[in-house]
Amino acid sequence: xxxxxxxxxxxxxxxxxxxxxxxxxxxxxxxxxxxxxxxxxxxxxxxxxxxxxxxxxxxxxxxxxxxxxxxxxxxxxxxxxxxxxxxxxxxxxxxxxxxxxxxxxxxxxxxxxxxxxxxxxxxxxxxxxxxxxxxxxxxxxxxxxxxxxxxxxxxxxxxxxxxxxxxxxxxxxxxxxxxxxxxxxxxxxxxxxxxxxxxxxxxxxxxxxxxxxxxxxxxxxxxxxxxxxxxxxxxxxxxxxxxxxxxxxxxxxxxxxxxxxxxxxxxxxxxxxxxxxxxxxxxxxxxxxxxxxxxxxxxxxxxxxxxxxxxxxxxxxxxxxxxxxxxxxxxxxxxxxxxxxxxxxxxxxxxxxxxxxxx
Length: 359
Hints:
Layout: E1 4-8, E2 11-14, E3 20-26, H1 33-45, E4 50-55, H2 58-61, H3 64-68, H4 81-88, H5 92-105, E5 108-113, H6 116-124, E6 130-132, H7 140-148, E7 153-156, H8 162-175, E8 179-184, H9 198-206, E9 212-216, H10 222-229, E10 234-238, H11 256-273, H12 285-291, E11 293-297, E12 312-316, H13 327-330
Parallel strand pairs: 3-4, 3-10, 4-5, 6-7, 7-8, 8-9, 9-10
Antiparallel strand pairs: 1-2, 11-12
């Protein structure tokens, strides 16, 4: 299995393909479909590849007691947790409306299916890929059923151990080749010392045949940019229109200007990563012409002299002569013309330059 696959129609991830940037709207829409549309448009305008929501079928995600418990948080949208979640949950018809709007805007749209019935609905409306939230990553019946759907998958790994992630990899891989794993720490907002970016490189070693990415809940953009420098092929960040709004995710979210800057920074880092081939680049030739050094004669060397190292020096010289890294190849060779003191030693005045002298 290659290290890349098509996550969305016409959009490959992994390998040398650009990092796929997910704007996680989640439930930061405040339960208002018009705000949700504004956020989809914002994600597109800022350069994100995908706008993502969270879909639940509440009776399948929570038991009755969980839904009935009092919820008095400052972030609450109701007296009970069920009332709160129902306020923030879009209906099937509203999801179809949002999906149509995203198509008009020109951005991919998907959602985390927060329970098996939500996954069934997302499959029905033909989302491009499934997102597995960290809270379901160790839910192996859910994972297996989701993987069997055959859609590409993006799996977050917050709250999990490496041992669990090995099981996750094996479970999904058995049914679905097209998936990636995101390093994630489930804290909102996330402190830098808890990010653990080095897990990205450990995942790359453990799972060398799938792309690895990063889902971040930190403030600011620097850590997410660093994740891309470490090789993250998917980056997911929560977004908001206003961090001061009611809701526990807003504080760990990016406002539009930050999201736009993150996208610009990621694209700049991708350009800077280059090919990994170390060589003199065309852009360096001007500097090399001005400052690049050559081998010169430390003293006059008469024609026919066998060169020794003490006859040579290295300086910025005109014209360009033999490169400094080749100075030892000159030792033992004869000069075929008189070379003046401080004069460049060029290939054409050295007998059999580049070959072992047989005499």
